[in-house]
Design a protein that fits this description.
The protein is an alpha/beta fold and 431 residues long. Strand 9 and strand 10 form a beta hairpin. Helix 12 runs parallel beside helix 16 and helix 13 packs across helix 17. The longest helix is centred in the N-terminal third of the chain and has 31 residues. The C terminus is likely disordered.
């Protein structure tokens, strides 16, 4: 009897052990047989099978119970791999002698390539924002007859009341500014006939020349009163009747700097382009350029006469309230924003990209000359950390090398066709 009791006791122990083992096995099996789609969502077994392969696979499985974790994976992958979207709505307010024609050539090429709606002048080389749509001179929008333009890049004074009604509200605003001294020297090189071969110091001592009115194309400049005095402020919409009021200038500068998403500095042109690339999600190919109207200190037609730079005394005179202090204050305001508010310019990686772009642009300039001359059919600039390979085809090089007059005409006729006064364009730019 004792032996039977002992055997029964052992049997009970074995049965209990078996039940425990069976229970453990069922739990293990539940994990092992966990649906593969949910394993991907949770990451179960990932270190063995690398089952988290794609966002599509995660989206294919799962249930409401697992949605929060699945959503976490989706958001993480979106953040890692979702490409940014190119900005295709923008306004450039051109300020003369700041590199704006070079920037115009870049933006015009982008508009034509992407077939954007653009606001253009109907006559001449400048867009008169004081006129009605379709006036000659005046402005219009095309191709077609859309109510709003995506872009504006031709010469036009800043006029918020008009632009807010005809430009898409999502548009980014761009302008360019330059320190007053180098601006004056550049302007005198560009308009030697208007300075009577004076030096910059001599010009400042001659009020009749320095404050001279814009005599040519009087219907084209829509409120731009003078050639050399406060030119940059005027292009950005400042009321010239307040030219003697420094407080009014300060208030307007505070207002106008808040209206622009990017203020280009002429002395940091390439770096400003990289700022634009990062904000607009563009490519290095989009930014390639051939400098327009950049000259030395030699006057056209008189190579033996060198335009002397401003003396220190001349600079002090230029920066008086009655001369171009307002333009200098404008430059300094944008300059502070550029260096203080753009965090990426403090990053060495940013300047490495600037240097790489300058190398790429120099190669494009040299090799496009060979492509245009027919010496080579194609040249590929290798890709780098910031850019995919760029293929210099005859079409790209033709667009890249186009002079400003041809490009201005091409953009206007692309937009409004026969509504653009071609003869007036030739006459307006022949000076």
């Amino acid at each position: 009897m004792a032996k039977i009791t002992r055997k029964l006791y052992l049997l009970i122990i074995v049965l209990l052990a078996t039940c425990i083992m069976l229970s453990s096995w069922l739990k293990i099996n539940e994990i092992v047989s966990f649906p593969s789609d949910k394993q991907k969502a949770y990451g179960v077994g990932a270190r063995h099978s690398h089952s988290l392969k794609s966002l599509a696979e995660v989206k294919a499985g799962g249930s409401a119970r697992h949605q929060p974790l699945e959503q976490e994976f989706i958001e993480e992958e979106n953040n890692m791999f979702k490409p940014c979207e190119k900005v295709t709505r923008f306004v450039m307010i051109k300020t003369e002698k700041t590199g704006s024609t070079t920037l115009f050539s870049i933006l015009a090429r982008f508009i034509l390539k992407n077939k954007l709606k653009v606001m253009v002048m109907t006559k001449g080389g400048h867009l008169d924002v004081t006129r009605k749509r379709g006036d000659h001179p005046g402005w219009d929008i095309g191709p077609g007859h859309p109510s709003h333009a995506d872009t504006l890049v031709h010469h036009a004074r800043y006029n918020e009341s008009l632009l807010s009604t005809v430009i898409h509200p999502d548009a980014k605003y761009i302008t360019l500014v330059r320190d007053a001294a180098s601006w004056l020297e550049s302007a005198m090189r560009f308009w030697p006939g208007q300075v009577d071969h004076h030096s910059p110091d001599e010009l400042l001592k001659n009020p009749g020349l320095f404050y001279q009115k814009r005599s040519k194309l009087k219907d084209d400049y829509n409120g731009q009163k003078t050639l050399f005095h406060l030119s940059q402020l005027q292009w950005l919409g400042f009321d010239y009747n307040k030219k003697d009021n420094v407080t009014a200038m300060e208030e307007y500068i505070k207002y106008i700097t808040s209206k622009f998403h990017i203020g280009f500095l002429t002395d940091q042109f390439d770096a400003s382009l990289i700022r634009l690339r990062r904000l607009f999600c563009w490519t290095h190919e989009d930014l390639l350029y051939k400098a327009q109207e950049v000259g030395g200190r030699v006057r056209p037609g008189s190579r033996d006469k060198i335009l002397q730079p401003l003396s220190k005394k001349g600079i002090r005179e230029l920066l008086q309230p009655e001369t171009n202090l307002g333009d200098q204050m404008l430059y300094e305001a944008f300059n502070r924003t550029w260096w203080n508010d753009y965090s990426d310019v403090k990053d060495e990686h940013f300047w490495q990209e600037v240097e790489q772009f300058q190398i790429t642009n120099a190669i494009a300039t040299a090799k496009c000359s060979e492509v245009m001359a027919g010496r080579i059919k194609l040249y590929t600039i290798p890709g780098n950390e910031w850019s995919s390979p760029i293929h210099l085809t005859i079409n790209l090089c033709t667009d890249f090398s186009m002079d400003k007059l041809r490009q201005m005409h091409l953009l206007a006729t692309y937009a409004i066709g026969e509504r653009y006064d071609e003869y007036a364009f030739v006459r307006a730019t022949d000076h």
